[in-house]
From TrEMBL, chains A, B:
InterPro entries: FAH, Fumarylacetoacetase-like_C, Fumarylacetoacetase_C_sf
Comp. bias intervals (Polar residues): 10-21
Domain of life: Bacteria
Keywords tagged on the record: Hydrolase, Metal-binding, Pyruvate
SUPFAM superfamilies: FAH
Protein known as: Acylpyruvate hydrolase
Length: 280, 280
């Protein structure tokens, strides 16, 4: 099944319709409401995503926005696509490389990505995992059972800031830099470990394409590993790393310009289409 | 002035007294209540810390606990003490090295620090800055004005996990690893840029001592820099880095053992006294 957070219109008795958001399920007839203003609130309140989820009213003019607007934790993995690591001549890592970003970094499937002019802005198409249950010190099977679903993300990175120091965080945690969505697809519908095609396009030109089957650490591995040192709770988000083809690794290097259209797609989940805005 | 979050006892009409927490101000007569269950909630609700803060009832048997239990952002700086950097022969950094940890990492001034047996646990005494106003793209003077106060922290680090990969996060973000408190002291009482002595002791033996006057990036510098890429809000916490003397840099290396007592002190702010618990 597919879930998300949607912006819709609600007829107001007091006057014109007002903008309104709701957690929702995508059904053949359209988006149906879940009893929370967004999926973060729905999952935090104990809601689950699956065939037993009770669906409410059909929502008119619903448009998916960032599915998880307020995860307490957004943990990201780097260097996780085997084919890409092998082609660069490196050995496969024995442990995942992890860093954090914030809920403030997240935008929706067709929002602008707003960054500072004069910085080196690069793409990173990624599968993101939505946590659905609280886990601490989980083994692989407990971690797998704690996955609520999968969504698409682009870990857009400000490379000059990322490489100013040894720690990547300051190039990764910019507000409104990370598109997510359009939907959260439950594990019964997609299996990243078996392989989903991840691709990224800039102004229509494909710049990344790989299969999630080549992930060194798959979603269950990552959740189990992270839960060794910090609890994961419903609504937390784990980004699984990007395949080869990023702009900083090209010769010559290539970065995003103001007005560029960035498309990020994962087979069976959906498409993000975001315009880059670089402002002074 | 000095503020904090305290555990106290409230007489219950229904039976025996129940454990209870409150944001509070330390006055000559004792702790007086602020209208929130803790300083995180107080600051998030628009409360300010200063001479105009309205004080409530005197709280009986109050004991300071972690002052900020739920910051949305805990940003940490590494490699920030000039004397220590110079003595290692490195050049002074041009940009702060930043990484993140979580509210789940924080414990109070006399809580146990609970980590996994068999890991390399090290001390890092640090000054922490409490954000008191929302800032984005702040200059130095705006950032300075946004400081609500200062507290003591120990960025206790799991070195073997920190150095498993290039990114330190997984050695820094362990739950219940980072003592904080005992109070938040407002900027009219202490001036870290002029110099406060930071010290750390293990079982009574001094292992770190330096002055915050040698910080390469002082509190206002750090808040301004971070606010360039992500908004800081009331209650967020910024850890400013640790002086020389950590266990991993010693020859031979020295790490903390189960039962060790870690004391972290900053002149004019206070003392943390935490027992290390390493369990399977």
């Amino acid at each position: 099944m597919q879930f998300g957070t949607v912006a819709t219109a609600r007829a107001s008795t007091a006057g014109p319709s007002t903008a309104w958001t709701s957690a929702a399920a995508r059904t053949p007839e359209g988006w149906r409401a879940l009893p929370a203003p967004d999926l973060s609130a729905y999952l935090a309140g104990g809601g689950t995503l699956g065939p037993d989820t009770a669906l409410g009213e059909l929502l008119p003019h619903a448009r998916p926005i960032a599915p998880l607007p307020s995860p307490a934790k957004v943990v990201c993995c780097g260097l996780n696509y085997g084919e890409h690591i092998r082609e660069t001549g490196r050995e496969l890592p024995t442990h995942p490389t992890l860093f954090a970003k914030y809920a403030d970094s997240l935008v929706g499937p067709d929002d602008d990505v707003s960054l500072a002019a004069g910085t080196d802005v690069d793409w990173e198409a990624e599968l993101a995992v939505v946590v659905g249950a609280e886990i601490r010190g989980a083994d692989r099977s407990t971690a797998a059972a704690a996955i609520a679903g999968f969504t698409v993300a682009n870990d857009v990175s400000v490379r000059d800031w990322q490489y100013r120091t040894l720690q990547w965080f300051q190039g990764k945690a910019w507000d409104r830099s990370t598109p997510t969505g359009p939907v959260v697809v439950t594990p019964d519908e997609v299996d990243p470990t078996a392989g989903l095609t991840v691709s990224c396009r800039v102004n229509g030109e494909e710049v990344q394409r790989d299969s999630t089957a080549t992930l060194v650490f798959d979603p269950a591995d990552l959740l189990a590993y992270i839960s060794t040192f910090t609890v994961l709770r419903p609504g937390d988000l784990v980004l699984t790393g990007t395949p080869g083809g990023v702009g900083t690794a090209r010769d010559p290097q290539r970065f995003l310009a103001d007005g560029d259209v960035l498309e990020t797609e994962i087979e069976g989940i959906g498409l993000l289409r975001n315009t880059i805005r670089l402002t002074d």
